[in-house]
Amino acid sequence: MKWWANRFALSVWLFLLVILLTALLVSFYVRYFPVITGQGWTSRTWIDDVPRVSALALHPDGGLYATQEFYPPRGTLLHILKNGERQLLLGNLGKPDGLVAFGDGVAVGQESGISPVLWYRQGKIEELFTGNAVEALAAWQNRYLYTVEDRKGGRLLRYDHTTKRLDVLYAEGEGMEGITRCPDGTLYFSEKKQGKVYRFNDVNPPEVVIEGLKKPNYLLCTPEGLWITEDATAHARVLLFADGEMSVIASHLRSAQTIIEAGERRMLVAEQGRNRILELIREE
User: Fold this and answer.
1) What pLDDT sits at residue 16?
2) What are 83-132's pLDDT values in tens digits?
3) What is the per-residue pLDDT for 32?
């Protein structure tokens, strides 16, 4: 009996060891597997070691505004200079997830419950309006701000800075994440859990235009098409939807967040799962 008991115990230990080694290999694969870019694109790390990096916007000096999506009171708005130096602009934020250039500064949203959308400019802070679990922000004509709320019954909001009026355009969201307005005025938003991207107008209900995505997150509309990032913790992608076709620009990312244009043939992506900002470069 003792021999069989020892053999059984050894088998259990070997089984547990195999599980542990498998988990370590999977963790290593997910964490360190290199980003794969689509045809005509390359990638490199633009800046590293930015914990919980989330939202990005261009700074007038050629650097970046960036948020760190920590829970209150640890969330921050940073100024990242071209040489990589970081300057703290705002602290005590609650999961600052939305950021967009607005006027002579940036508008900053906070996802932690009922919180104000802030306007930071030249060292001054102004509260513009209040939302509940505010996610991404989009600006239009330097007058309007659009945002979505990441909650059941979340709202699509439009703020008119000229009149200070806040309009609810839609109030049946299921965890909305990204929003963008195209140069022609078309409005899109994403629902992460549903894996869908919707087109919206003021007349008809939201129309599903893309589905089957892996946690679609931030959106960006340019003359080239609709850019989409995925917030999956492994195998997240950067996608470009144009003329009814989907192209994979980059894959094997971890929790991709904001994507912005950073000059000719350059895009910047906040890769939160690796605490870095990734640069995607179109080859000539």
Assistant:
1) 62
2) 989 999 999 999 999 999 999 999 999 999 999 999 999 899 999 999 99
3) 56
How many alpha carbons lie under 13 Å from residue 174 in its C-beta half-sphere?
11
- Residues 112/72, Cβ–Cβ less than 8 Å: yes
In the numeric block, the tokens 């607005």 are attached to: 102
pLDDT of residue 144: 97
- For 80, 231, 277, the CA distances from 191, given in Å and listed in that order, are 30, 11, 23
Q: Which of 216, 144, 142, 129 is nearest to 176 (CA)?
A: 216
CA distance 98 to 111: 8
Question: How confident is the model at residue 10, as a pLDDT?
Answer: 61
Write out the chain in H/E/C secondary structure. Answer: CHHHHHHHHHHHHHHHHHHHHHHHHHHHHHHHCCCEECCCEEEEEEECCCCCEEEEEECCCCCEEEEECCCCCCEEEEEECCCCCEEEEEEEECCCCEEEEECCEEEEECCCCEEEEEEEECCEEEEEEEEECEEEEEEECCCEEEEEECCEEEEEEEEECCCCEEEEEEEEEECEEEEEECCCCCEEEEECCCCEEEEECCCCCCEEEECCCCCEEEEEEECCEEEEEECCCCCEEEEEEECCEEEEEEEEECCEEEEEECCCCEEEEEEHHHCEEEEEEECC
Which residues of the chain register pLDDT less than 50?
21-30
Are 187 and 179 spatial neighbours (Cβ–Cβ below 8 Å)? yes
